[in-house]
Structures are given as C-alpha cells and as structure tokens.
Design a protein that fits this description.
By secondary structure, the protein is an alpha/beta fold. Helices cover about 50% and strands about 20% of the residues. An eight-stranded mixed beta barrel has the order 13-14-16-17-18-19-20-21, surrounded by four helices. Strands 2-1-5-4-3 form a five-stranded antiparallel β-sheet, sandwiched between helices. The chain is elongated, with a radius of gyration of 41 Å.
C-alpha cells in the first residue's frame, strides 16, 4: 500500500527518523543508521497506536522500552534522548486530531512506561551479568593452580568490561578492588576510593534494614542481599544505585570477601521524579493540580483528633470576558500572575495553593486553629487580587469569589468538602462577587435540592408529573367569571407539590421551559374548550378565556407563533379564547425583532397581557408600541387597599394607570385581591377584572366550572 503524501505513514516515518538520529550516536550496534531506523520503525508504530487507542494500554510503552535494550540501546543517554524525542514529537507527528490535553497525558504515561520497561530489561540483563560475575568469582577461588591464570584472565575481562560498577572488599570493609565503571559512577580515583571503608558509605536516606543486612552478610549468616541505596559523591551530589552484595567463601566454605554490584539508577530516579511532578502539578502555573490537592486534602481530613482544616475555593469573576476579548494567550498570562500572587499568600506551615482547572483555585490550611487562619487566608487572597495585572500593555482588574469551608478533621470526605466549597463560592458570586462567604449547611442542602430538581426536570415531563391549577378571573362590574389563569405545578415524588417559583427558573436555565411551556399551553387551551362546551348557555357574559404565562425564553424561541397556531387548530379554539401573559421586565427595552411574534399573535386575535405591571420601569410611554391589550397591575399597588382607609397615594397611582390604560383601549386586571373592600375600591377606580384569594385560590378545573355555572345561573 502506498501512503498518501504527508499521510499518517509519512509522519510516522519522520518520527522514526528523528528518533534514530538522536539515539544512534550513543548506541552500541553494528548496523548503519538507516538500518537502525528500520529497527525503530515498528517500535514507533506501536507507540503511535498506543497513543491513539480507544482503550489506553501502558504495557505497549514497557514493551518498547524493553525492545530498546534488545536493540543494544543500553546507554542511559539513549533512554534520555528517546524520552526527549517522544515528549517533543510523538503527539506532533502521531497524535492526529484528537484531544491534545488527553494525548499529552497519554504521552507522559507512555514515557513513564518506557522508562519502566527499559529499566526492567536492563536490570534483567544486569542480573544475568551479575550471575556470570559471581560464578566467575567463585570459580576463580576454587580452580586448581594450573587453571588459575586462565580463570583470572576471564574474571578480569568480565570485571573490567562490565557496564555496572563492581567492587570487592574484605570482611572488615576494606576495599580491595574496583572496576572502571564504579570509578566513573563515583567520579573518584581508584586510590581515593580504596582509601575508604565500606562502613563510611552511609547516607541519610538509607533504608532501616541496610546495615543490618550488611552485618548478617559479613558474619556469614546470608549469602547476598539487594536494595536501593544512595551514596554521596565527592562533589556533594547523590548517586542512586541498585546495590547487590554477595558473600564469597574460601575453599573450606568460610566467609572471605564481599562482592558489590552497583547499577546507576540516578537518571531513572530523576526521570520518575520528573514524571511524578508533571502528573501532580499544573503545566501552566506550576501549582499543584487537582490530583495532588486531593491527596493533601484527604490527608488533612484524616488527621488525628484536635486537628482542623480550612479551605478557600476561588473562582475569578469575569475571566471568560478576558479570554473572549483578549484571547486565551492573554488569559493564560493572567492565570500565571494570579497563581504567583496566590502562592505568596500561602507560605505558613500547613498551607498550600492548587489550581483545579480553568480559573478555579483552592487554598488549604491545616492545624488546630484554622477557624481564624482560614479567614485571614481568604483576606490575604482578596488583598492580593486588588492590584491590577498588566497583560499586553493593558491593566486588568481581577476580582474573585471565594467559598470557605472550615471544620474538624475526620467528619467529611474530600468530595463532600469540595462540593460544599464550590456551592458556597457560587453563592458569593451570586451575591455580586468580589467577596467570600462561609459554608452554610442549609444553603448547601438547598443548592443540592436545586441540582436534584434540575436533573429530574426532563424525566418529570415525560412521566407526567406536572399538572395545572386554575385561578378564576372575575369581572369587577358584575362579578361574573370571565376566564382563568393557568398555573403549573409539579407533583414531585419526594418533595410533594412544588409551586412554579421552585422549578420555573430551573426550567428557564436548562431550556426545558420551551417544551414545558408548550405542554402547559396545549393543556390549558384544551381545558378552555371543555369549559366552552359546558357553558354554551353563558355566552351573555362572554366566552371563558384562558390566560397562559410566557417566559422570556419562550418569547425568543422561533417556534412560538407556529406552536400556538398548531395548538389552536388542533383543539378547534378561536384565538380570542387565549391570552398570553408576558412580564413587564421581559419587554423592557424590547426591539422590533422580539416584539414581532407578539404582534403576529395579537393580529390573529390572541390577547397579550402585560403581567406584573409596575414592577419594572413602568415606562407608560412605551405602552403605545407594545402589542398588548391588557395590563395586569402588580399586587404591590393594591395591598394598602386591604385596609381602610386606603393609602391615598396608591389610590391616585392606580386611578392614573387605569385612566391611561383605558385611553389606550387597554383593559386592566388586578392581582392579589383578598378582601371585599379591596375589590369594591378597585371597581370604583375603574379596574375591569381581578383575581385573588377573595374569589378563589388556584384549584382544579372542576372548581372553576362550578363558579362559572353559579354566575351563569344567577
């Protein structure tokens, strides 16, 4: 198969070429570089497939690492150059169009696996060499005199040519022989090395059993031991080794010498530390990441009795605006500066700052007195954000909202604590931002309930958990029932009957308000048809009309007009049977595009009511351009009329609104009528219709049928 120019096969071969050019100079092989490149090509293909596999398998990385040793790439520099090539070019040439962050994470794990596979294969090879050396050493002690010269020559060849460090000492620890590899590892002359005693090679990081095993070996109680040990070099640097020490016995079996085999693991250890750092720290800011923070938080929450913790969850206010206006590069520089400032706020013992992702940061403090310390930490963070940050010549003002959770260790888990802090942070943001709030269990419970309701909303509509109650609209002149307002309710399986204030804002936020509103409209119009069929003899007082509320989200939905037309046609109802209520606040500053669907509905004969009139700007001059036929006066204007005498100012206001509305051919409906005196006063002022508990509370459609029947029969 011939690959297309610059296709995946071409990019794979470029990666193999770069890899071979980097590693070939430090490889002990008789192959030419092109031949060596052909050896690396299948390994590059395995890495490419592992990088893009649906289910990631790090075993491929270990297999490739082991294959390098088989290809005679045993020099540590070969591994270092290999990992550098993989880090720099694997995702670039073999990543395709996948998620770059996921590909980089996979690439890092492949590097770790390659290093592990390389080390394991090299260790196996080393152990084989160690066994050969040990056997040679034993044979060298037990051969007969006539074979001594030949045996010594073979031992010397292995001893000097081995890639690992070898040293021999007597049972008192005096060093007798060392090979060149060991001298290079320590960076010291043979004379200086042989002047040292084995017992002097101590290090603070020695495992507890190190010298116990040594004592057992020189006493002849064990034949060998293996462990990881650190040594100081003369220049003060640390040499990390895999150390194997074996006991050599004389012809009679008595302990005579000790033989040490050392594999230099310093580079591998540094690589592991680097990979661990990259896995636990944020690449952009250098702060600990979510993984590292959860480890620290879990440790803090598991501390002993008397210990407490304090957590500050910070989210920058308006950060999205920076990204949208100045670009993500500017946003990244802003985050780096914020991270530096936060880092300077958490310098005391037991304090740390981490970046969870995006513009979200957390600060943790631990100890016996975090109640005071966490407030001080939050204050320091807020102060650190006061000074503007310069990005691309612009001075950007940064503000943040902080949620604080504080309490004793051992009572909650990390996920619960972080959830509470997140909820509290959003409460601070909802209160205007640039502030911090303390966690409140009751507020947390309300937020969790809201989340539960939000997630349950879609299935609730499918399961038929919503129902509609109707509150009658009464004519103030003759007291007849002219219609009803449809009010949706949710019969929740756990929380019982919920009013619209509990779930309508959630439905608007999720967009479910459109299908829910369509369902309410259709059910209400069908109910209006049933009322008209039942009250055919009540035409003297006019047909019963249904009022249905429209949310701002429904107003902007392109299917509003067509949905309304379809519902009226399916139910066989005339447009004058329907009144759509729109809040005044939804129409403040409305342009012609927003008003166009309402105008089309009004031209069809559907009444449009301006709901909650008086709660917005009450721009009376704006009424002329709105396609409304009814004003629904907010109850705040008429509450004083429940008492006698009524507030004269409210009377004048209502009288003026009614006069203006009638001059514009608008009918006036009043909400919240609760007393007979209030109803009479509104009738005298000229209001047309009213609704409220004085007439009836919202209820099932049968109740309105009974009220309308009473009115119709006198």
């Amino acid at each position: 198969m011939i690959a297309e120019p610059d296709g995946p096969e071409d990019r794979l071969r470029r990666f193999a070429t770069i890899w071979s050019r980097a590693v070939f100079p430090v490889t002990s092989t008789s192959s030419t570089r092109p031949e060596f490149e052909e050896q690396l090509l299948p390994l590059a293909r395995r890495l490419s497939e592992a990088l893009r596999a649906r289910a990631f398998d790090s075993d491929e990385g270990r297999t490739v690492g082991a294959a390098l040793v088989e290809a005679h790439c045993t020099d540590p520099e070969a591994l270092s150059r290999t990992l550098d090539c993989v880090d720099a070019y694997l995702v670039l040439y073999c990543g395709g169009d996948g998620d770059q962050e996921d590909l980089r994470a996979r690439c890092a794990r492949l590097q770790h696996a390659m290093a592990a596979g390389f080390a394991r294969a090299l260790r196996s090879r080393t152990l084989a060499e160690q066994e050969a050396i040990a056997q040679a050493a034993l044979k060298a002690q037990g051969v007969v005199a006539q074979a001594l010269h030949a045996s010594e020559a073979r031992f010397r060849a292995v001893f000097e040519g081995a890639a690992i460090g070898i040293g021999m000492a007597d049972l008192e620890g005096n060093i007798l022989q060392v090979n060149g590899a060991l001298l290079r590892m320590f960076g010291i002359s043979e004379q200086a090395l042989r002047s040292r005693n084995v017992m002097e090679w101590t290090h603070p990081d020695d495992a507890p059993q190190t010298w116990r095993l040594y004592e057992e070996l020189v006493r002849g109680e064990r034949e060998h031991y293996h462990l990881e040990k650190a040594f100081y070099r003369p220049d003060g640097t640390v040499l990390w080794t895999n150390l194997t020490v074996s006991l050599l016995r004389d012809a009679d079996g008595a302990p005579q010498y000790q033989l040490a085999l050392m594999e230099d693991t310093t580079e591998r250890r540094l690589l592991n530390l680097r990979l661990r750092y990259e896995a636990t720290h944020d690449a952009l800011t250098g702060l600990p990441n979510r993984t590292f923070f959860f480890e620290r938080l879990e440790k803090a929450l598991g501390a002993g009795k008397g210990q407490r913790f304090g957590l500050c969850y910070l989210d920058l206010d308006g950060f999205k605006t920076v990204n949208d206006s100045l670009g993500h590069a500017a946003g990244d520089r802003l985050l780096v500066e914020v991270a530096d400032r936060l880092q300077s706020c958490a310098t005391a013992p037991g304090e740390m700052v981490a970046r969870l992702g995006g513009d979200e940061f957390v600060a943790l403090t631990t100890g016996p007195d975090t109640q005071r310390e966490v407030d001080e930490l939050a204050a320091r963070i807020m102060n650190a954000l006061l000074a503007p940050i310069s990005v691309d010549g612009r001075e950007l003002t940064v503000r943040g909202s902080i949620g604080i959770v504080e309490g004793p260790a051992g009572e909650r888990g990390p996920a619960e604590v972080l959830r509470s802090a997140d909820i509290t942070m959003y409460r601070a943001k909802s209160a205007g931002g640039n502030r911090f709030e303390l966690a409140d269990p009751e507020a947390d419970a309300r937020a969790i309930t809201r989340h539960g309701l939000t997630t349950a909303l879609p299935t609730a509509l499918e399961r038929g958990e919503f129902f509609i109650e109707y509150q009658p609209l009464v004519h103030l002149g003759d007291g007849s029932v002219r219609g009803a307002e449809a009010l949706v309710r949710w019969l929740h399986p756990q929380h019982g009957v919920l009013g619209p204030d509990r779930f309508i804002p959630l439905a608007e936020h999720t967009g479910l308000i459109v299908p829910l509103g369509r369902w309410v409209l259709e059910q209400s119009v069908r109910q209006a048809r049933e009322w008209r069929e039942l009250h055919g003899g009540a035409e003297a007082v006019g047909p019963l009309r249904i009022n249905v509320n429209l949310s701002p989200c429904q107003l902007t939905h392109p299917g509003l007009v067509q949905d309304t037309v379809d519902i009226l046609e399916r139910t066989g109802m005339a447009p004058d049977a329907l009144c759509l209520e729109v809040t005044e606040s939804a129409l403040i500053g409305a342009d012609d595009d927003l008003l166009k669907p309402l105008r089309r509905l009004a031209e069809m004969g559907v009444d449009i009511a301006l709901d909650d009139f008086g709660t917005g700007y009450s721009n009376l001059a704006n009424l002329r351009r709105l396609p409304v036929s009814i004003l629904k006066l907010d109850r705040s204007f008429t509450q004083s009329m429940q008492q006698f005498p009524a507030d004269p100012v409210d009377l004048k206001i209502v009288e003026g609104i009614v006069s203006l509305a009638h001059s514009l051919d608008l009918a006036v409906t009043v909400e919240g009528v609760e007393t007979g005196a209030q109803a009479e006063q509104l009738r005298v002022l000229g209001c047309d219709t009213a609704q409220g508990w004085y007439y009836a509370r919202p209820g099932p459609p049968e109740r309105l049928h009974e009220l309308a029947l009473v009115d119709a029969t006198g």
